[in-house]
Design goal:
By secondary structure, the chain is mostly helical. 73% of the residues lie in helices and 0% in strands. It contains nine helices and no strands. Helix 2 packs parallel to helix 4 and helix 8 packs antiparallel against helix 9. The termini are far apart.
């Protein structure tokens, strides 16, 4: 009986070894750029972004100068944004700007970074710095590209973020007042006095604290 059991173990190990060799043999190398690009597109469309990232890595590694790379980066940026994976989206955007940041391309890439940062916000109380940083980037974008194709959408983001900052300051001021720290409350109320918004003009969004205006 022991011999039979031992043989079964040996057979199992051999099967695993053979299947392992088979999987190694299936690894793909030295394929045309369009092959990796199409594989990436298919995986992204199926929602398998991990696999899509792997195919992009193969495309980038084997075809450094391929004109498909910048387009692939933007596709993966949007795919990760759709999946609410904003850090990965930002990674691809940073690489895109670094490599292909011409005057024309930069407008779009910077808009996408602002959009990704905006969508990446989850809680204004925990993300106060990100709210302010993104607002400043939106204001800088508007100043740099006043007549840009994407500027109207950035203006909308700016308004949303200004509202968020106003409500955030008001919330903090109220908290300080409840705790008897009136001087601290005055500091945050003074910040809101500098805003072009007025409290009675602000209505909190119905769907989450940011709302979704790109739908």
């Amino acid at each position: 009986m022991f011999t039979t059991f031992f043989r079964a173990i040996v057979v199992s190990v051999l099967v695993l070894a053979i299947s392992g060799c088979g999987s190694k043999q299936k690894a793909e190398y030295e394929k045309p750029a369009i092959y990796w690009y199409q594989k990436m597109m298919k995986s992204a469309a199926a929602g398998n972004l991990e696999k899509a990232d792997d195919y992009f890595t193969s495309l980038e590694s084997e075809h450094v100068g391929s004109p498909l790379i910048p387009e692939a980066m933007l596709i993966l940026t949007q795919a990760h944004m759709d999946a609410e994976e904003y850090l990965l989206a930002n990674f691809y955007l940073d690489e895109y700007i670094k490599r292909y940041g011409s005057a024309k391309n930069r407008q779009f890439a910077e808009f996408m970074k602002i959009k990704a940062a905006f969508y990446g916000l989850r809680s204004p109380q925990r993300d106060q710095k990100l709210v302010i940083d993104t607002l400043e980037k939106a204001q800088s974008y508007i100043a740099n590209y006043p007549d840009g194709e994407f500027t109207p959408m950035v203006r909308t983001i700016e308004v949303r973020l200004e509202m968020t900052r106003y409500l955030m300051n008001e919330s903090i001021a109220s908290l300080y007042e409840r705790r008897g720290k009136t001087e601290a409350a005055k500091i945050y109320r003074a910040r809101n006095k500098k805003s072009w918004l007025k409290k009675d003009e602000i209505r909190e969004p119905n769907r989450g604290w940011l709302g979704r205006f790109f739908d």
